[in-house]
Automatic annotation (TrEMBL):
InterPro entries: CDK, Kinase-like_dom_sf, Prot_kinase_dom, Ser/Thr_kinase_AS. This is [RNA-polymerase]-subunit kinase. Keywords: ATP-binding, Nucleotide-binding, Phosphoprotein. GO terms for cellular component: cyclin-dependent protein kinase holoenzyme complex; cytoplasm; nucleus. SUPFAM superfamilies: Protein kinase-like (PK-like). Residues 1-11, 20-41 have a biased composition (Basic residues).
Length: 224
């Protein structure tokens, strides 16, 4: 499985629509190779799905493979930071275009049974000229089924982590990605992070300060 960040930072000019492969994840057993193969298959969406399109995949050795993805010249984090440093707000029309693509890409992932689990501006690649946005870096993604499996709660960048995950939940689903989408939406509007916590406790305090402390009436089962 390839991380798209490494080739985007390689400094080499793109040739055509695709670039050279990035780093690859080693798979030591046949089970892990099968998981890598399934994840690679899920990473080849249609052109307009909002996901980074896989242009090719080849087997490097018995335990590794390499993938090529379409080239995107920047990411959403740098785009927001540029506006913040210039003391400018991102135009509402641009926010709508970016959020539409993000929601469409997340819907595509969830429609195919994939949780991204690490949505943040740094993992959203974009083209400044066309304002095309693509979801990348699915290194923490997992396939979800019914009934829900038990997952680790140590996922996601802290600022975009859902409160149920911060509270230690191990059974979660698509709402954790939608929480991240909402945080990204607010950051596009204000050009600053919505919940910039330094620890899990402080992150929860930021959330409760803005949204109120949850109870059994607004969040059934929160006491457990």
């Amino acid at each position: 499985w390839t991380s798209t960040r490494s080739w985007r930072r390689s400094g080499r000019a793109p040739t055509g629509r695709c670039t050279r492969p990035g780093r690859r994840r080693r798979a030591g057993s046949w089970r892990s190779r099968r998981r890598a193969s399934r994840r690679t298959t899920r990473a080849c969406p249609p052109r307009r799905s909002g996901r980074s399109r896989c242009c090719g995949c080849c087997r490097r050795t018995r335990t590794s493979c390499a993938c090529w993805f379409e080239y995107m010249d920047t990411d959403l984090k740098k785009f927001i930071r540029g506006h913040r440093q210039n003391h400018e707000k991102i135009p509402a029309h641009t926010v709508k275009i970016l959020m539409y693509q993000l929601c469409k890409g997340v819907a595509f992932c969830h429609g195919r049974g994939v949780l991204h689990r690490d949505l943040k501006p740094h993992n959203l690649l974009m083209d400044r000229k066309t304002m095309a946005l693509k979801i990348a870096d699915l290194g923490l993604s997992r396939a979800f089924t019914v009934p829900l499996k038990k997952y680790t709660h140590e996922i996601l960048t802290l600022w975009y982590r859902a409160p149920e995950v911060l509270l230690g939940a191990t059974h979660y689903s698509t709402p954790v990605d939608m929480w991240s989408v909402g945080c990204i939406f607010a950051e596009l509007i204000t050009t600053t992070a919505l919940f910039p916590g330094d620890s899990e406790v402080q992150q929860l305090l930021h959330i409760f300060k803005l949204l109120g402390t949850p109870n059994e009436d607004v969040w059934p089962g929160v006491g457990k």
